[in-house]
Amino acid sequence: MKIVIGSDHAGFPLKADIVTHIEALGHEVTDVGCYDAGEVDFPDVANALVDFLLEGKAERGIMVCGTGVGAAIAANKRAGIRAAVGHDVHSAHQCVEHDNVNVLCIGAQIVGLWLARDLVSAFLEAEFSTSEEFRRRVCKLSEMELKG
């Protein structure tokens, strides 16, 4: 699977390990920034990540910032994106299975290295359910985007 990843300065140290982990799982990773620990605004990186996804250059995205919350808010501003904060393995898996989430947001100040790896594995292994109830609900989410 092709994965796009991004972070702000707070997520930068954890991002490198996540990239290594994703590659070890056999996925291709593109990093859209930031590229050092200098201060950067997370909406700028989230926007670059979302552009990459919406252009079809990746199937899923991962944003790493301080709490994951700002990244999720920023990514969700764009139609076609369903971003969720995932700080437990169940949610990281179920957000894809039930809600067809395409961007996982992780808080580097909230989770440690080992949990971050488990979150990423759960997110990448999950598949959107074929159950009608979940597909119907995600369709309603898409309809809500059209209302603006």
Features:
49% helix; alpha/beta; 5 strands; 148 residues
Order the strands across the largest sheet as they lie in space.
Answer: 2-1-3-5-4
Ends apart, CA distance between termini:
31 Å
Give the tally of β-strands. 5
- Largest sheet features: 5 strands, parallel
The low-confidence runs, each spanning 5 or more residues with pLDDT under 50, are none
Question: Would you list the SSEs in sequence order as H and E?
Answer: EHEHEHEHEHH
As a percent range, the share of helical residues equals 40-55%
Rounded mean pLDDT is 97
Structural class: alpha/beta
Helix count, DSSP H or I runs of 4 or more residues: 6
Radius of gyration: 14 Å
Describe the 3D structure.
The protein is an alpha/beta fold. It has six helices and five strands; from the N terminus they run E-H-E-H-E-H-E-H-E-H-H. The chain is globular. The mean pLDDT is 97.
